[in-house]
Amino acid sequence: GAHAGRAFSLQQPQAKVSVAVGETFTLRCTVSETAGAGPVRWLKGWGSGNKTIYDQKTKDPLSRVMRAVGGSNTDFTIHIRNFQPDDVGTYYCVKFVKGKTNEDEVFQHGSGTEVSMHETALVPGMGAAAVVLCFLLLLGLFIALCMYRRKRQGGVGSPCPARTVTMGSFSTVPLGCCGGSPSTPSEVLDAESSHLPSQQSSKEENDIHYADLQPLPPAPRCSRSPGTAPSEYASLRVAAK
């Protein structure tokens, strides 16, 4: 059990401490100078299942626990680095003294500090990075959508102006372009024959009607439906003898 000395006092002021994984937490404990021979220790848990976290007599350079004020006989505050879930529990600062059998006996202990784990909050830098990342993702999605719509609109061509061919004394005959339905050969021939001069005499029958094909102006490039191609037709007609 715990025994209280008349001139000795032990102060463990922290009731609860909440720590995030990976952080360093501090457990505070101070004692008065008037005490018998014996170490001060930090124990995790109480009773038969307790575990020694810090012992004034033992120095372990690989330990995660270190004194806040090294060499002090009154301040036994400790720091524990790299908090892990297994560190959750209640910690006690305990003063021991030598008993009649020369073994360490509990002289006085603190009321205990309950250590718990809390979720890691986003630091300002991480929050800003998350906002920038979301913005870049939305921007990329918007650009991809615009490119897709432009590609879809480019597949549907706008109507092109018709092209004409000047053929000698014949009237100009319009030629369809890819914007609309291409004229069939029969339609073009019918259009030409409707403008041919009538055969009035046998002398005219011996004449040869010809088509003088003029150089075509460059056609405007435009999209067309798959499977269709612009066609241009001209004809030569020789009168029967």
Automatic annotation (TrEMBL):
Pfam families attached to this UniProt entry: V-set
Output the SUPFAM superfamilies linked to this UniProt entry: Immunoglobulin
Region Disordered: what ranges?
A: 184-241
Question: Transmembrane ranges?
Answer: 126-148
Record bears the keyword Glycoprotein: yes
Instruction: State the organism named in the record.
Output: Cettia cetti
Its name, as the record gives it, is SIRB1 protein
Q: Which Gene3D superfamilies match?
A: Immunoglobulins
Give UniProt keywords alphabetically. Disulfide bond, Glycoprotein, Immunoglobulin domain, Membrane, Signal, Transmembrane, Transmembrane helix
UniProt keyword annotation of Membrane present: yes
